[in-house]
Design a protein that fits this description.
The complex is a heterodimer of chains A (272) and B (199).
Chain A lengths: L5 H5 L2 H5 L5 H13 L1 H16 L10 H13 L23 H5 L24 H11 L9 H16 L4 E6 L5 E7 L4 E7 L9 E7 L6 E5 L6 E3 L8 E7 L13 E4 L8
Antiparallel strand pairs in A: 1-2, 2-3, 3-6, 4-5, 4-7, 7-8
Chain B lengths: L15 H15 L3 H23 L2 H18 L10 H22 L6 H4 L8 H20 L3 H11 L5 H8 L3 H20 L3
The chains are: A alpha+beta (272), B mainly alpha (199).
């Protein structure tokens, strides 16, 4: 890598504002910014220009995303404010920097080294569709008005999964006749999941659904509320199985107990 | 009357009220206010998701990245300083950075095929929905993009919407690096004049 002259560095302001630098260049440029009084305002203006390009892309996110984010928020602690951030003289120049600079750190990962052993997925079957649809209608009764919109969103999402050309169904049943049913579409990356016969866990605890992928931590797909079907989206084709654990009220960021049921997704078109 | 801090932007994107509200909400969120976060989610989830999906494209991955970004807003809200710019700018800059990181690592992993590069200037896969949701903003941005020269437009859009580095852009357009850097700067500046000049 050649050394950058000052003017060369300066010409990187626009690519920087567009996030079009490679990481080493980005670092070098940010170092330059800290020493360059006239750069701050300019880079900030260019960054504001770049952000305007985003205004045209607004699109409604899937309703399930909201549930997942809100669940995560309830269980995720916040980072403390940066130490004495704005007031210190040494920091004064940083105040002119664009958002990249102070928002540039990747999120600290909550790595849990502990591997969570899972028991073997059990049988799949074909009657799952009936199972899912039956419980779906069973819970439609007796809804209060304020939940109607959420229910409609959910219904729309369920209909969306059911209508996918590659929608396939699978079910698992344990020794005591309790069931987990799933209808999933690999191309849509979404699934409708139901539990049957498990009842509500004791002591205000909840059933939480997890997405299992090879080489990645389990990802929360949401909490079951009674026997209401749960719509899981954003599954990705690498998804290998779904698992359900019992968690404290409000759910957990990562499973804290062994899954009591797990269902492989291969039979519904994932992981292929 | 426009707020000085958001001058020139009032026409593009959310209304001024939303923007100021996002600032206030993000400050409340920094104090651990979950209710404020729910309101903030209502304001920013559409812009965040739309931007991430425009860059990442793959629906499942887009959802994942959007979820990470939205959660990061909760976690890192204390880093936001209204003296440095608007909350929406901060949020969308963060979302863009994360989306670009994801699309680049996906490319590096060979998940994205070469032909996608060639389709770079075609509309996003779900433009119809986006147009319904963001018709006015989209229209203004597109109109201003149309006023750029071809090279300015390609340099800006390949970088911002497709997540290419300026070196990759130079390669794709067969231009010297210096030319691409200049086109990017000129393109952004002209967008500013065009959007800011919209009365």
């Amino acid at each position: 890598m050649s050394l950058f002259r000052r003017e060369d560095l300066h010409s990187l302001a626009a690519p920087y504002a567009l996030d079009a630098l490679e990481p080493p260049e980005r670092v070098r440029f940010e170092r330059h910014l800290a020493d360059c009084d006239r750069c701050g305002a300019e880079v900030r203006a260019l960054s504001e220009d770049a952000v305007r390009l985003a205004w045209s892309t607004t699109a409604p996110p899937p309703a399930a995303l909201r549930e997942r984010v809100m669940l995560a928020v309830r269980t995720t602690p916040q980072d403390p404010a940066p130490q004495g951030a704005v007031r210190e003289p040494a920091r004064a120049r940083a105040a002119q920097l664009p958002p990249h600079v102070w928002g540039a750190q990747p999120p600290p990962r909550q790595r849990q080294r502990r591997r969570i052993p899972l028991f073997v997925p059990f049988a799949t079957a074909t009657a799952a569709a009936a199972l899912v649809v039956a419980s779906l209608f069973a819970v439609q009764a007796n809804r209060t008005q304020d939940r109607l919109t959420a229910e409609q969103d959910r219904s729309r999402e369920i209909a969306h999964v059911l209508a996918a050309p590659d929608a396939r169904a699978s079910t698992g049943r344990d020794g005591r006749g309790r069931t987990i049913g799933v209808i999933a579409s690999a191309t849509e990356g979404s699934a409708v999941v139901t539990l049957g016969g498990y009842g509500a866990p004791a002591g205000g605890r909840v059933h939480q659904l997890w997405l299992m992928r090879p080489g990645a931590q389990p990802r929360s797909l949401g909490l079951f509320q009674g026997d209401t079907p749960l719509v899981a989206t954003g599954l990705g084709t690498s998804a290998t199985s779904l698992a359900v654990t019992v968690e404290p009220a409000g759910g957990s960021p990562q499973p804290t107990t062994q899954p009591f049921v797990q269902l492989a997704l291969k039979s519904v078109g994932f992981g292929e | 009357m426009r707020m000085p801090r958001v001058r020139g932007q009032a026409r593009c994107g959310l209304g001024k009220g939303d923007r100021v509200e996002a600032d206030e909400l993000l400050l409340l969120v920094a104090g651990g206010d979950q209710k404020a976060f729910e309101e903030l989610y209502g304001l920013v989830s559409g812009p965040v998701f739309g931007l991430v999906r425009r860059v990442v494209r793959d629906p499942a991955q887009s959802e994942e990245v959007a979820q990470e970004v939205l959660l990061e807003l909760w976690r890192s809200a204390a880093k936001f300083d209204p003296g440095r710019g608007s909350a929406m700018s901060w949020i969308l800059t963060l979302a863009h950075r994360r989306a670009v990181d994801r699309v680049r690592s996906a490319r590096a992993a060979g998940e994205r095929e070469q032909r996608e590069a060639l389709r770079a200037n075609q509309p996003a896969f779900d433009q119809v929905t986006e147009e319904v949701e963001a018709g006015l903003e989209r229209e203004w941005v597109r109109r201003c993009l149309d006023r750029l020269t071809v090279l300015q437009r390609q340099s800006v859009t390949l970088a911002y919407y497709e997540g290419y580095t300026y070196r990759e852009v130079a390669e794709q357009l067969s231009l010297p690096l210096g030319t691409v850097k200049t086109r990017m700067r000129d393109g952004l500046t002209r967008m500013r004049e065009c959007l800011g000049g919209v009365a």
